[in-house]
């Protein structure tokens, strides 16, 4: 079986994306050609084998070791999720590169709300404590940065950096679906306030 997928890391309107010669994600062959081993076919190892240094705008907020651990953990989570969705060509090193580029593009801010993210809180969230303290504990980490799959279910993948609160709200929606929901929420809130004012007069 010929190894046809030739992805590359590019930037599109400030968003890190992986481009591919095919609109669909192919399944990896059982054995890759010798020259493709250790990297995505079509991507030279020197392109993706690099140290993920903290961008300058985050250097006072997070330690290099913690940043790399966060990056690897987030990339692996998305690799597992995409493979479960049938995208068997998802590879950790490529995803780490895409997410790293998304971090640099974010300048440290939420891609959807423009809020400054709490990078100093990275790796401090504790699931056990969240279970015992409930919503109050989770609200304390509302602005901790996380990685959003910009348009879930679409290949090649696109990632954006946003807060945990924003990611929880957006969930599996595309950006347009999320914006549409936000507009409906705001429109309904205005109507409800108008009715309340009418009742009080």
From the alpha-carbon coordinates, what is the Rg to the nearest angstrom?
20 Å
Envelope shape: globular
The total number of structural domains is 2
Report the count of strand segments: 4
Looking across the biggest beta sheet, what order are the strands in?
A: 1-2-4-3
Q: Which stretches of 5+ consecutive residues score pLDDT under 50?
A: 1-14, 20-40
User: Could you give a short account of the major beta sheet?
Assistant: 4 strands, antiparallel
Structural class: alpha+beta
Binned strand content:
5-15%
Q: Estimate the helix proportion, in percent.
A: 40-55%
DSSP helical segment count = 7
Q: Give the overall average pLDDT.
A: 80
Distance between the termini: 75 Å
User: What is the string of helix and strand elements?
Assistant: EEHHHHHEEHH
Describe the structure.
With 201 residues, the protein is α+β, with helices and mostly antiparallel strands. The protein has two domains: 8-170, no CATH class; 175-201. Helix content is 43%, strand content 10%. It has helices at residues 45-48, 64-84, 92-106, 127-133, 135-140, 164-170, 175-200, and strands spanning 8-12, 15-19, 145-149, 158-163. The chain has a four-stranded antiparallel sheet. The longest helix is centred in the C-terminal third of the chain and has 26 residues, at 175-200. It is globular, with a radius of gyration of 20 Å. The model is unreliable at 1-14 and 20-40 (pLDDT under 50).
């Amino acid at each position: 079986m010929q190894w046809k997928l030739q992805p590359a890391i590019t930037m599109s309107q400030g968003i890190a994306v992986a481009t591919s010669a095919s609109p669909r994600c192919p399944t990896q062959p059982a054995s890759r050609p010798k020259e493709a081993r250790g990297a995505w076919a079509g991507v030279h190892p020197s392109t993706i084998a690099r140290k993920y240094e903290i961008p300058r705008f985050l250097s006072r907020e997070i330690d290099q070791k913690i940043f790399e651990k966060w990056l690897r953990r987030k990339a692996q989570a998305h690799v597992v999720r995409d493979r479960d969705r049938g995208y068997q060509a998802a590879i950790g090193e490529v995803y780490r590169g895409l997410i790293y580029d998304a971090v640099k593009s974010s300048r440290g801010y939420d891609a959807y709300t423009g809020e400054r993210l709490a990078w100093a809180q990275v790796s401090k969230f504790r699931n056990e404590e969240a279970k015992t303290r409930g919503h109050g504990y989770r609200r304390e980490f509302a602005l901790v940065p996380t990685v959003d799959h910009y348009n879930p279910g679409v290949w090649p993948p696109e990632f954006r950096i946003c807060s945990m609160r924003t990611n929880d709200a957006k969930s599996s929606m595309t950006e347009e679906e999320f914006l549409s929901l936000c507009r409906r929420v705001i429109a309904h809130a205005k109507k409800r306030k108008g009715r309340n004012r009418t009742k009080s007069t």
